[in-house]
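Possible regression after last week's pipeline update?

I re-ran a chain I had predicted before the update to compare outputs. Posting the input and the new output here so someone can diff against the archived version. Not blocking, just want to make sure nothing changed silently.
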Amino acid sequence: MSSVKKAIITDAGFASRYLPITKTIPKAMIPIGSKPVMQFCVEECVAAGIEEIIIVATPNSKSKEIYEDYFHNKAENVKALLEKQGKLDRFEPVEKILNFPKITVIEQDTSLPYGNGSPIVSAKNYVENEEAFVVLYSDDLILGQGDVATLINEYEAHKGAKAVIAAQEMPREVWNKYGMIALKENGTLSHIVEKPKTPDLSPSNLTSYGRYLLTPEVFKYLIPQNTGLDDELWTVDAITKLAGEGDVIVARSKGKWITTGDPKNYFMAHLEYVLSETDYADDVRKFIAEH
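New output (post-update):
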């Protein structure tokens, strides 16, 4: 059995590129098909055997309340109505959610600096005594085989590793948008070049994104005074420091990573999901061809 039992899913941010909808609901509750992006992240964890999930929500918003309601509200009134109508089968997706492993929702600590490392620090008390834990950014949707299982398998095969990060090959024209991975001679992580201005500055064609397996040692470096670019607290900066102490394994994704971080990429991700994962894909292809 795996020694990795817990996962942190981060959704701490106001998602200004999605306004006005994100003034009311968190971005990760925007649907892909009939499920919100956050549920895809949770299901990826469940499929990998994770037993407890900590969702870190945006502070000073309704996000925590919305996640609590979505994952814990038994919706007995809806179930009773569907049963009365003879449509109880439609309630099965809700039953699935209610049967997920333990989901704890917390808010990001507002005393921490801005940055994608701060939600992880906010959940420190839940994972600091674990051998290792997984982190997922809810911006990132993985189609096909989920990355969490891949990260855990790589960690179990490389006991003593400081961390494992997911990687995917990306075309040259988008290297300037992502963190590009530099490898040591043994194939483990050397460092990550954030958004290289020109392709020749990228050390490889491998992109790092929001799927990590971390050991609690990361909290030596994920501290408020260790801000980096734009005075933000960056997870990759802490991972790079871990790579200076030992092996950080680079695990190629067995699925397909798609970002939902902005409306354009969200639409592309939604379309790809519909065309590859739904029973109405052919109808959509026909509609597109006719228009």
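Follow-up from reviewer: compared with the archived run. The chain has one domain: 6-280. Marking as no regression found.
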